[in-house]
Design brief:
about 60% helix, 6 strands, 3 domains, Fumarase C, Chain A, domain 2, elongated, Ribonucleotide Reductase Protein R1, domain 1
């Protein structure tokens, strides 16, 4: 019997909802008083009892375990104030109760995650401003492509996270709908005031269909999806941190506390925090799949399967918050190694596109220019030379259009300064980006 209670119960994981449950029950009780469904005297006793439980919880007291947190709160209330506590559940089902608790909880956590992400963006902006003169290769296919400013690379993540925050805002809209008052599935015959409860609990709207209200977990799936995208963006950044820290790149250093040594190789410092964040993304993606699978093919309205929605939601939530906190500290410690990033721009013929543009500006169709520069790069490889090591005579073998000013187009600083289009990598464009992201943060 004990194993069955453990199997059917949810107390081991829904305890996180205890404060949300009490807050929701207080609002429900106040509505019952307002609508004369219970007496003011009974209602005041219930509210007092619930407040006393909440107060004790904040002091560290643990509520006795029951089948679920909702029953645990109700049973403790009855223990404290007597039989009058049994009136609290009037005009309410556990079905609409748990749906309300989860929405209350996620609304607060969406705000908490957004605050952490805003901190991340501020750190990125600060790092970008500090490294606005650091030049590094930009990559496509992990091959050197064109020179960019390190600030440009950093700010790409600030904009990714901005989209993540906007997705959370959108998710919040669909979470901010009160299901309480839907009862088990068909509503209630008591003359309740759902808008009054919504006002107390700070919900913008109430659910329109009681069947949908008690069975809907779209908002929870959407939340885990939003969290999954945040994790995905962090994995991309962490992958680059891991690559950039390797001796083959040597672009950056990070704080020693974010690395660990090898058990056998004394020279090693491994980027463990970046690797763990990268690994936790898989766990969070799994939470999303778990949510989708739990809801797959469920008939209306409430089914006990739905209690399995909370472990993946809580797991994704706890892990993304931890990842963001560690990421914030790690990025704050990040330092670019100027000389190494600049030296790296000499590899991979990253000025080649500028040479093609040079020819295009001088009347050569771009596709023809592209083929011509491709031949020059091949010539360089065969002769173990870089583009800036060729003489003007060698360039003229390929085209008489090349003049001595061609060497100005091979300087990475000059290349970056020409990239003035909106959203580009010149210092001027980066300053505009920083200004715009700061406006978003305000």
């Amino acid at each position: 019997m004990q194993n069955f209670k453990k199997f059917i119960g949810s107390f081991s994981f829904d305890g996180k909802l205890v404060e949300s449950d009490i807050i929701g029950s207080i609002a429900h009780t106040k509505m019952l008083i307002k609508t004369n469904i219970i007496s003011a005297n009974d209602g005041k006793k219930i509210v007092f009892g619930l407040m006393s439980i909440l107060k004790d919880l904040k002091k560290g007291w643990k509520i006795p375990e029951e089948e679920d947190i909702h029953y645990a709160v109700e049973k403790e209330l009855i223990r404290r104030i007597g039989i009058v506590g049994c009136r609290m559940h009037t005009a309410r089902s556990r079905n609409d109760q748990v749906a309300t608790d989860l929405r209350i909880y996620l609304k607060q956590e969406i705000s908490n995650i957004k605050d952490l992400l805003t901190t991340f963006q501020k750190i990125i902006v600060r790092k970008a401003s500090k490294n606005i003169d650091v030049i590094m290769p930009g990559f496509t296919h992990l091959q050197p492509a064109q020179p960019i400013l390190a600030a440009h690379h950093l700010l790409a993540y600030a904009w990714m996270i901005q989209r993540d925050k906007e997705r959370l805002d959108d998710c919040y809209k669909r979470t901010d709908i009160l299901p309480l008052g839907s009862a088990a599935l068909s509503g209630t015959s008591f003359k309740i005031d759902r808008w009054y409860v919504a006002k107390i609990l700070n919900f913008k709207s109430i659910s329109e269909n009681s069947l949908d209200a008690v069975s809907d977990r779209d908002f929870a799936i959407e939340f885990v999806f939003c969290v999954s995208l945040i994790a995905l963006h962090f994995t991309r950044f962490c992958e680059e941190i891991i690559l950039w820290m390797s001796p083959e790149f040597g672009y950056i250093s990070i704080g020693d506390k974010f690395t660990s040594g090898s058990s056998i190789m004394p020279q090693k410092r491994n980027p463990d925090c970046a690797e763990v964040i990268r690994g936790k993304s898989g766990r969070i993606f799994g939470d999303l799949i778990a949510m989708l699978t739990v809801l797959k093919s469920l008939p209306l309205a409430y089914n006990r399967d739905l209690q399995e929605d909370k472990p993946p939601v809580f797991d994704a939530l706890d892990n993304i918050k931890l990842c963001i906190k560690v990421m914030n500290e790690m990025i704050d410690s990040l330092k670019f190694l100027n000389a190494k990033t600049l030296k790296s721009t000499k590899k991979g013929f990253i000025a080649a596109t500028e040479l093609a543009d040079y020819l295009a500006r001088n009347g050569i169709p771009f596709r023809v220019a592209h083929k011509l520069i491709k031949d020059i790069v091949l010539y360089c490889r065969e002769n173990s030379k870089m583009l800036n090591e060729l003489s003007i005579e060698e360039y003229n073998k390929f085209s008489p259009i090349f003049k001595k000013d061609i060497f100005e187009y091979l300087d990475v600083k000059n290349i970056i300064n020409t990239k003035t289009s909106y959203g580009a990598t010149s210092k001027q464009a980066i300053m505009r980006q920083i200004k715009n992201i700061k406006r978003k943060l305000r």
